[in-house]
């Protein structure tokens, strides 16, 4: 479920918030790096999307108009991580069985 990066309030609308939309509970901007699928505080320019780095905002928790913004859904990210983990385990098994 998509939710506010600041307070965790669920986003109940379809799609993504408008570029100037704020969380109804805490008032923080929803169209902000903190809510984006590509946001990574440890990545270069806070972003894993190379094309978006040209649009680097001043502050990752405040409103921005980045055209690469994709509202983060933690459940989708966890699903993607599980698929990657499963694929990696399958490859390790395949290569380990061929080495014997």
Index terms:
100 residues, 1 helix, mainly alpha, 26% helix
Fold and architecture overview:
The protein has 100 residues and is mainly α. The protein has one domain. 26% of the residues lie in helices and 0% in strands. It contains one helix and no strands. The protein is elongated. 18% of the residues are buried. The mean pLDDT is 79.
Short description:
This protein is mostly helical and 100 residues long. The chain has one domain. It is built from 1 helix and no strands.
Q: How many separate domains make up the residues?
A: 1
Q: What is the CA-based Rg, rounded?
A: 17 Å
What is the chain-wise order of helices and strands?
H
Which structural category do the helix and sheet elements fall into? mainly alpha
- Overall shape: it is elongated
Total of helices? 1
Helix fraction bin: 25-40%
**What distance lies between the first and last C-alpha atoms, to the nearest angstrom?**
44 Å
Mean pLDDT: 79
Strand content: under 5%
Largest sheet: none
Number of strands: 0
Low-confidence stretches: none
């Amino acid at each position: 479920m998509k939710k506010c990066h600041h307070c965790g309030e669920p986003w109940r609308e379809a799609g993504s918030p408008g570029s100037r939309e704020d969380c109804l509970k805490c008032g923080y901007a929803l169209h902000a790096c903190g809510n984006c699928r590509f946001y990574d505080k440890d990545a270069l320019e806070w972003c894993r999307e190379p094309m978006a780095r040209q649009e680097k905002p001043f502050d990752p928790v405040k409103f921005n108009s980045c055209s690469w913004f994709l509202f983060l859904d933690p459940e989708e990210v966890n699903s993607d991580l599980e698929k990657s983990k499963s694929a990696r385990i399958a490859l390790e098994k395949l290569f380990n069985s061929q080495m014997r």
